[in-house]
Amino acid sequence: MLEAAATSFASILVLGAGFGIAAYVYHKSYKYMVLRKMAKAFEPGDPVLDLAAIGKDLPLSKTAAATHWVERPEQATVDAIVAGRSVGHYHLFIGEKGTGKSSMLLEAMRKIDGDGVAMFEAHADLEIFRIRLGKALDYEFHEDYIGSYFSERGPRDTTALLDIERALNKLEKVALRRRAKVGRPLVLIINQMHLIRDDEDGKDLIELLQQRAEQWAAANLVTMVFNSDDYWVYERLKQLATRMDVLTIMDLPKAQATAALRNYRQRYFGESPSPETLEQVYDRVGGRLSFLNRVAKSRDMLATCDAIKEAEKTWFLNQCWILGAEMDDDVMDQQKWATAAVVLATALVDKEAEMESTYDREVGHILPSFPLHEAQEIMTRADFVRALDRLNLFSITSDAQVRASSVPMHLAFREIVARPGFRAHLAATIDRIAAIESLGRTRELVAKDLVLGGRYQFRKVPGGTDVTLKEGENAGDAGDGDKGNSAKG
């Protein structure tokens, strides 16, 4: 019995020790593989570059300017940031949609073949944001960890925000190892930050990302780059920013825009547009790269310019046209918003007459603008202008100037304001809104007893007012025949 017991005990001890050692080795090797996979995600080559090259039908070449046909003046600054030569700061790229922010980042990544860089797109849903972050970093959030089979609660029994924090913790370890080997920080690019919802969950996510960006910028571990079209992201980051560097991406100046358009037409169409044609194109669409790209690929450039302007005009009218004096009171809230937008557009058109110059032969268009606080005063509301910025009707620049979102949009404003009877229509809408608001604040008292010459008699009494109804044709004469109903209030 003793021998059998000793044998059983020894067997159990060996099996337990074997399982324990195997589990420990697996745990350590799993954590090592997690860091190794994440480190490989920052090695040369990136799926984002492959997708960009496929989308543009270009070879996967390392030559400069292979992914876009015009180089912006800010490209050198972006190259230094993405290559890891600019340290000590994290960066916010802000500018209107279509100015070339993402293209510059992709071009800078392609010049170094994505070495030390990871990029992904933001999303409003935190779970999708978590998945995209994990894909960019090649991190599984312990979802493939075999130890979850032996626990009641798995590693994913938590929130998306905690998973994002866990991924950033792993990234910090990878960055520490890489800095010891290479001597420069990793670069993490989050594109389309404006897609994050402006609510409590979005605020928590941006705060988490900014805290990491501040810490890593101070230690030169990771340079984070936030890319946004909307001003509210800048406002959110500004509250806690100490090491944030803001790079504003504007439309191309006239000389560079026309030169790029000429080179493109010569390269792909074999034609040399006249200076008059190039100037007409710039006058209609400005230096917005997305518009120039559409025009450059079109056979009839001027017709495409007109189509772009009409599309912007239609977008504005569909979103916030005013309904006039006959509007129903059920659309009151929407019409307040629409009227504020139309009033601001009218003010921008009227300001052109006060400006010394609205066009420069070298710079190009000088769009009228108002400081943000003045725009809010013109609209008589402080909560509408940011929503208009999100809809790309107006634009708020990084220095808090409010203007039309683009040159075609401002030209659309001119046409709308120049419509016959527009200002009378706007005034009628404003008056109708004021009348509905006044009706909502008014209380109506209906007196049904005043017949046959009856009247109310009011007199002050101790503790209130006495109201007496005098009836009859001669109710005004005092007499014994008068009838009265009285009430005290």
TrEMBL record:
> Which residue intervals make up region (Disordered)?
467-489
Q: Name one Pfam family in it.
A: WHD_AAA_fung
Transmembrane residues, as ranges? 6-26
The protein's matches in InterPro entries, at most eight in alphabetical order, are given as: AAA_16, HTH_AAA, P-loop_NTPase
* Record's signal peptide: none
Give a yes or no for keyword Ligase in this entry: no
Q: Which residues form the Orc1-like AAA ATPase domain?
A: 78-222
Which SUPFAM superfamilies does the UniProt record give? P-loop containing nucleoside triphosphate hydrolases
Where composition is biased (Basic and acidic residues), the residues are 480-489
Give residue ranges for domain AAA protein C-terminal winged helix.
318-437
- Keyword Zinc-finger carried by entry: no
> Which protein is depicted?
Uncharacterized protein
